[in-house]
Specification:
alpha/beta; TIM Barrel; 14 helices; globular
Length: 365
């Protein structure tokens, strides 16, 4: 198996399996991605608890919590047996990648629509993860509005911690995040910063019409307060079914956002459809995404999850299937559904990339 992987990597210009993710990514820009037989990122929502009742905020661009407030979804926790099955499925399908610095499967994201500060089983989940997948980086996101829960992120078994704070000051924070929690976030970040050991720390700024003019102030503020944190400026992209993102973006275009971001951070790396990293036809295509309710989605975009999903985790468990089967279905599908065809994250040359895929999927229904 490893020899086959080496041959494939050689055709992509990678000759050293111990290259860093960053080095490999540069060589894989625009290259085909369909040589791998498993998703490159597995994203599971261990909990979708966030929003006003759990985090004390309601971000202006947040679609999933709007669905909860509108009664079209509900807060829930993924059963531990599902979480453990996903971890074991990864471990079973990727044994040859143990201790490699650059596996095709890059990370497991323990979030989707929720916030890790509200995950009351965090220690149990990370202990299980470490027992099965200690070699694979784990990632979580948080709004960090609860300083008392900062300890959940100060755990060496959690490799990657990302805080979203899309404001340089208290007043802007209230506009963008719908709550007066700016000082709480700074306190939580300070607790993590003072106690974190060997963890990758990031703070994210999602650009909206309400904070567009505050990027430079935020970039300098966070750089001075938390110099070891990576600062990430992310353009907001309109989603087909997400009216909240449309309203939050206003008349701003992705190109306008990117130019403004580059003016602040010349080294910024964008993930939108024109410059998406690695080799997929859209930035979300490499994700296997599972909601806390068990839906296995087309991607981590939650639009129309009732229509564009690939079954349910319990079905996979009952039928002896794997996320490898899901990935084969995804490749065979070639983004034929209308959601993908209309998605703003699709690469301009996606059709040509997808036309090169030749795969047969064995589908159980």
């Amino acid at each position: 198996m490893e020899n086959n992987i080496r041959k494939t990597l050689h055709t992509l210009g990678i000759y050293n399996l111990r290259e860093t993710i960053e080095d490999a990514s540069l060589k894989l820009q625009g290259k085909p991605y369909y040589w791998t037989d498993y998703p490159m990122a597995v994203q599971l929502d261990t909990t979708n608890r966030c929003g006003p009742s759990n985090s004390g905020i309601f971000c202006s661009y947040c679609f999933p919590q709007g669905e909860v407030l509108g009664g079209r979804d509900c807060h829930a926790d993924m059963p531990m047996e599902w979480i453990e099955w996903i971890f074991k499925d990864i471990a079973k399908n990727m044994p040859h990648l143990t201790n490699k610095e650059w596996p095709p499967l890059q990370q497991t994201c323990l979030f989707l629509n929720g916030d890790w500060q509200n995950e009351m089983r965090s220690e149990e989940i990370l202990n299980k993860y470490d027992s099965l997948l200690s070699w694979l980086p784990s990632q979580v996101f948080t709004c960090a509005t609860k300083p008392s829960e900062a300890w959940r992120f100060i755990n060496p078994k959690l490799k990657w911690v990302c805080v979203t704070c899309s404001a340089p000051d208290r007043e802007t924070y209230k506009k963008v995040h719908g709550g007066d929690k700016f000082n709480n976030v700074i306190e939580t970040m300070r607790n993590i910063d003072n106690n974190s050991i060997n963890q990758h720390l990031e703070v994210h700024y999602v650009v909206t019409k309400d904070n567009f003019d505050g990027m430079k102030k935020w970039f300098n503020f966070m750089g001075n307060k938390f110099p070891r944190w990576r600062r990430v400026l992310s353009p907001l992209v309109k989603s087909q079914c997400n009216q909240r993102s449309v309203d939050s973006m206003g008349s701003l275009t992705v190109e306008q956002q990117e130019q403004a971001i580059h003016d602040v951070d010349a080294k910024a790396h964008f993930w939108n459809h024109q410059t998406t990293a690695l080799r997929q036809p859209c930035v979300l295509h490499n994700n296997a995404a599972v909601t806390c309710h068990g839906e296995v989605l087309q991607c981590c975009n939650w639009d129309r999850k009732d229509k564009w999903n690939y079954g349910y985790i319990q079905d996979y468990i009952d039928e002896g299937r794997s996320l490898k089967d899901y990935w084969m279905e995804r490749l065979a599908n070639k983004q034929r559904n209308s959601l993908c065809r209309a998605c703003n994250l699709k690469r301009y040359d996606a059709k040509n990339l997808l036309s090169n895929i030749e795969v047969t999927a064995k589908v159980k229904r």
